[in-house]
Amino acid sequence: YREILEIAPHHPGSWQLLGVIHLTQGDAQSAAQYIEKALALCDTKAVYWNNYGAALKDLHRFEDALAAFEKALSIRNDYPSAWSNRGLMHLELGNLETAEQSLRYSLRLDPRHADALRHLSSLFQIKGDRTEAIRLCHDSIALAPQNISGHEQLASLLIAEKSLEEAGKAYRKALALQPGKVDNLIRLASVYADLDDNESANELFEKASMLRPDRPMWKYRRLSLCPSILSSDGEVTDYRQSLENQLDVAFSEKIRFPWQRVFQDGVVPSFHLAHHGVCNRAIREKFASLHAPSFPQSRQKIQCRDKIRVGFLNTSGHEGGFVRGFGGIMERLDRERFEVVGLIARDTVSYCRTMVKSEKVNWLGFPQDLSRAGSLIRNAQCDVIMHWHSGTDAMNYFLPFLPLAPIQCIGFGTHCTTGIPNIDYFVSSKLFERGEDASEDYSETLVQFDGTTAWQQKPQCNKPATRADFDLPESGTIYFCPQRLAKYHPSFDRILLQILENDPNGYVVALAGHRKRSLEKLRQRLTQSLGPALFSRIIFVTQQKPDDYYRLLGLTDIVLDSPVYSASLTGYDAFALGIPLVTLPGRCMVQRYALGLYTKMEMTDLIATDENHYINLALELSKNRDFRAEMSRKILERSDVLYEDPNVVSEYESFFERIVKDRLENAN
Q1: Strands, E assignment, 325-401
Q2: Quick one: average pLDDT of 169-194?
Q3: Alpha-carbon distance 153 to 138, whole Å?
Q4: What is the distance between the terminal CA atoms of the chain, rounded to a whole angstrom?
Q5: Could you tell me if 380 and 343 are in contact, meaning their C-beta atoms sit under 8 angstroms apart?
Q6: Is pLDDT above 80 for 390?
Q7: How far is residue 277's CA from residue 285's CA, in Å, rounded to a whole number?
Q8: What is the CA radius of gyration of the chain?
Q9: 3-class secondary structure, 172
């Protein structure tokens, strides 16, 4: 085409097709410039405007792209691709009804239009109907199996559904079509990491790093890998020391990159660090130091207005916990003093609207794109943003590095400090912390409420169950560990060993989780540490839907709390049903949730002082039915103080008012 243009520089078709080549190669800026030259010579061809819109779309100039697609349709109204692209732009701009109309019209013109099906899949994902989204995505792939975008989108949908192995297959198909697309190597590596296959993940990270030596951070992507199941206390210590040493080496290179590229270049600290039973401040701060210099540092100035605007922020995949932890607070903040904004992933808007019973929450859905999400959140002009999680995914880890609001806070949903400079306050409780010294565990300013930090509705278990419903033994004590497999720290094996040795009729029930590799690692470790005979009395049940989970919990005699990661939401669940829970508090907040709930109930009977005490309490509950009945009675009598507590809301109100007042005074 360049040779043609040397002979005929006014040939519009060559300029347009040269632009298409650059668009296919991922250079949208050059593509737009070349197609603009074509349009300057001939602006009456619908295909030129359609391809110009596609280039503008890739540049995130959505309003301009929409105008280009509208122009294409004004020239040729029966153009399926332009209708499909018009639908996609309305989708990106949040106009779901218009988007669906456009996409369905495209499919009426061409029922085999793969892109329209794929965009319609995205629309159903945003609506929260992932089943239909996955079906449509499969239909799109069947029509265009060589289009890697379809496989990438399917993988993303499957990850949201926690179908990680299927997501891995989708990424492998995308890589078979385009082996050099290193972004998909990184994504597949992240899937392997989530499956606890760190060896395969590390191989892919290394391969990507070798393919792109111009991306120096890629060789440190392995630092995000942490086995969920470690074999011994010593292995935990060795892993953490090695990680700190590698972080120091990475920091010494002082690598900088455009923050918009952080999903590819950034390194998210593993969530499994919270399962090690030690303070994570030093490690978290080292991770943050790798990224903070690449982000803009300026903060918005706080505004003086009649009401404080508070945003509650959550990313996709965590909406259940978010609604349970913050929903009641969002509903009940005094609307004479506060405006409430739900800053949530756009595919969770429908769910959150349904679950949070208030019409006075302004919901803002943001896309899975850091730059655009950050812009939308800043435009909401919140005075305070309260984050639910940090580090359970890349989005919620990196978003707070941006100056999203004058004040950023985090608390109950995140179980240790973030290390992120832009997060100002960590909201905890005197019930969960060891005192004023606890502030040394946090990079944020630690705020300790008098009460709990989550307004909790009392859960109900209305459907009775029998042991046979869950294939449990008809007799014997059921010790339930309703926690993630990663909470089974090697030190917990000693406790389980002693309990099972001294209670020959006891069974430990555990949730198998979604990750086969993690389960197999834990099975192997427990078989070795307990011996085959005792291990035969560990029963792994499949992950349960909420109703069935409560039915299973209702069959439990005793809940065994993890000493490294105490029960928070599961503690509320157990106490609502009067189930005795044995806990052994540690130094950090994450080890002290059950202690705090018992303290709130003014009940200390089942708080152990050491491992032997923990074991003896569990055995006493098993062997002494009167003692167990007494503990259950006390829990039921006292646990109402944990639920629907208006003081939780009033403490948040006082906190928000105080920090805004302090910031205004300091600004003046």
Answers
A1: 338-345, 361-366, 384-387
A2: 94
A3: 10
A4: 62
A5: yes
A6: yes
A7: 18
A8: 27
A9: helix
- Using the structure block, give the residue that is written with the tokens 């399917």: 154
Q: What is the three-class DSSP state of 333?
A: coil
| pLDDT for 586 beyond 90 | yes
Q: Which helix (H) or strand (E) holds 353?
A: helix 349-355
Of 227, 235, 435, 413, the residue nearest 312 (C-alpha)? 413
Residue 53: partners with Cβ closer than 8 Å, 6 or more residues away: 65, 66, 67, 68, 69, 72, 82, 85, 89
Mean pLDDT over each residue of the chain, to the nearest integer: 95
Please check the confidence at residue 459 and state whether its pLDDT lies above 90: no
What does the pLDDT look like over 429-451, one tens digit per residue?
A: 999 999 999 999 999 999 999 99
- Is pLDDT at 360 greater than 80 in this prediction? yes
Percent of the chain as helix, strand, coil, to the nearest 5: 60, 10, 30
DSSP annotation string for 61-96: -HHHHHHHHHHHHHH-TT-HHHHHHHHHHHHHTT-H
Number of alpha carbons in the 13 Å side-chain half-sphere of residue 210: 6
∠ Cα 435 436 441 (to 5°): 95
pLDDT band at 464 (very low <50, low <70, confident <90, very high): confident
306 phi and psi, to 5 degrees? -65, -40
d(CA 156, CA 134): 10
How far from 104 is each of 63, 66, 113, 325, CA to CA, in Å?
21, 17, 10, 38
Q: Helix, strand or coil for residue 578?
A: coil
Take residue 14 and report the two structure tokens written for it: 């060559």
Q: How far apart are CA 579 and CA 482, in angstroms?
A: 12
- Does the structure show a pLDDT above 80 at 462? no
- Cα–Cα distance, 189 to 214 (Å, whole number): 19
Handedness of CA 192, 194, 199, 201 (dihedral sign): positive
**What gap in Å lies between CA 460 and CA 437, rounded to an integer?**
38
Q: Assign 211 a pLDDT band (cuts: 50, 70, 90).
A: very high
Indicate the pLDDT class of residue 26, thresholds 50, 70 and 90: confident
Structure tokens at 149: 């975008």
